[in-house]
Hints:
By secondary structure, this protein is an alpha+beta fold.
Amino acid sequence: MKILEDSGCHNKELSILFTNDEHIAELNRLFLKRDRPTNVLAFPMEGGPESGPQTPMIGDIVISLDAAERDAEETGEDVDRTINRLLIHGFLHLLGYDHERSEADARKMERETERLLDLIEC
């Protein structure tokens, strides 16, 4: 996957789950205590106990296809591009990007999202 290579994650893996609003809302409630559906969730494998097993797995990304379709309709963007955008968004969270910390962090994450979108769509 181009974004893994470009981000220096050679020989690394991602788990990607495409699901619906009901299931992602359940995951959001269970793991993040947010009682609502969302478009994407990211669960990093790193940051756990140092004694844990070494794995090439970076983490899990969960995307609601229901939300992706709504997002695409709202923005006028092709649904495939929206799914790519959500995948990149989740991936960047796995790498430590956080758009909720500050406006500057949000802009940095958006710039990297656009750069990676251009990379995979060329």
